[in-house]
Amino acid sequence: MKTKLAILSVAGLLAAPTMADIQINGFANLIAGMTLDDDESVYDYDSDFSFDPASVFGLQVRGEVSDKLSATAQLVGRGRDDYDADFEWAYMTYVLNNNVNISAGRLRMPLFKYSASLDIGYSYHWLTPPDAVYGIDFNNIDGVRVDYMNYSGDWEYGAQFTVGRVEADTTISGTPAALELEDVVAVSFEATRDWFSARTLLARGKTSAANPDFDTFVGGLAQYGAFIPTASTAAEGFSVNEDTGTFFEVAVDIDKYDWFVGAEFTQTEVDGSVIADNKAWYVTAGMRFGKFTPHITYEVEEADNGDQLGLIAALPATIATGDAVVDATWNGAAGTAGIYQTAAGIAAQQNLDVSAVTVGLRYDVEPGFALKTDVTWYSDDLNDLNDATLLKVGVNYTF
Amino acid sequence: MKKWILAAALCCNVAVADVAVIVHPSNGDSLDKDSISRIFLNKAKAFPSGTQAEPVALAEGQAATDEFNGKVLNKTAAQLTAFWSKLVFTGKGQPPTALGSDAEVVSAVAGNPGAIGYVDASAVNDSVRVVATF
């Protein structure tokens, strides 16, 4: 129904040739991938050839209401959502002056270097940007963004100020959960001079995430506060309930056209929650030989669950209150995990230490149309069983 | 010496057609390569005098187009497409309207005090002012 409505409204816009300035642009990333071994899976790919995890089709309609005011909507269908089309962006932009734009509505959050053109595979050399840094649960925000751009001498620079709220799907310990970020404030800066560019972003927001299983677990843990003082602390420390989250990003890029190198680093912390402190980075380099761009990327993602393990260390593994049911629920029984074991298991799961090497080739068929192939060797330093080799081939198109 | 300069000019005219960047005759701004490049890449929205700039491009396939993109914007056609795709899909800007021939660009610039365009130098006439040639 949502799709139908969306198509109708786009058709409505298309069927209005009398409206002065309507621009329609589109993009398509058709990406197929498979792991090279039967029992391997990574980034939602397995050994069966699949188009779903990363393929994206989109259509953008922009109408100029006046010289100063425009409306933009982007209708996007993703393979992983069965190509159900969704309005991912719908915002209005007011041009305050030659240097300042103000946009309001649902818009892209400028979290990363490639955030703005994340869905436009044509705009970067990979088939998909490095998952270690870019594999987060949300990219759009409902709110207001102020964009400032200027230049001075040979430098071009800009700043963005974004406020709003985010609702997205996430997972807690592998189970789907609703993520909510409130009172989000983000500030970013970027500067470019000829072949050099750099940018950074700092964001914070009140973070909440919940699903019924996790709520039940946290509730159970909290009840043991009556018997174990540290259980209340642990329950509070595990719950993701209006906890302050901070996100920091920095990226640098050197592009001499014949060759380029780039690096990006991110750090995420949600204090007093089950979400472990996360650091991720990548370095990438490539060369351009006419229509061919071979490239290589090394990426790392690490999450440190020290805080979570600390909460577990303060809990007794077994208790003896005299009440058989209370004790068994905490201690567990043969074949059933008690609350203590569940908590220890969740804390242990938050640890992460993965890296990947990607080698790829881009071939520019014509302006707006590129063919690409990437091979990624993914390595989980905590569990070799998760190691995988992923092959992807794809087409990026934009008009 | 004079002869030598003349000979050099002749030689170069034969070798490559120059691109002339043109504005409306009422536009008195002087523009260098960087400021022209900024106007055509959506980085500057106005002329130094403060007048809003309305760049007019020439369609792909026209001789002056590749010359201008390469010499002034320092971009290949593929790079330019990638550059604009980033701006278009972030709502930051739209590429300049591209007209089909030198003559259309000349008449569009002649008819609009805020316009700036580029054409093959041989297509220039009195209805426009040349601010730079490359």
From TrEMBL, chain A:
- The organism's superkingdom is given as Bacteria
Extract the signal peptide range: 1-20
Listed A to Z, the keywords are: Signal
What is the protein's name according to its record?
Topoisomerase IV
Q: Which organism is it from?
A: Alteromonas gracilis
TrEMBL record, chain B:
Instruction: List the signal peptide residues.
Output: 1-17
Q: What domain of life does the UniProt record list for this protein's source?
A: Bacteria
Q: Which InterPro entries match?
A: PBP_domain
- Record's keyword annotation contains DNA-binding: no
Give the residues annotated as coiled coil: none
Domain PBP residue range list: 13-124
Q: Which Pfam families match?
A: PBP_like_2 (PF12849)
Per UniProt, the keywords (alphabetical) are: Signal
State what protein this is by name.
Phosphate ABC transporter substrate-binding protein
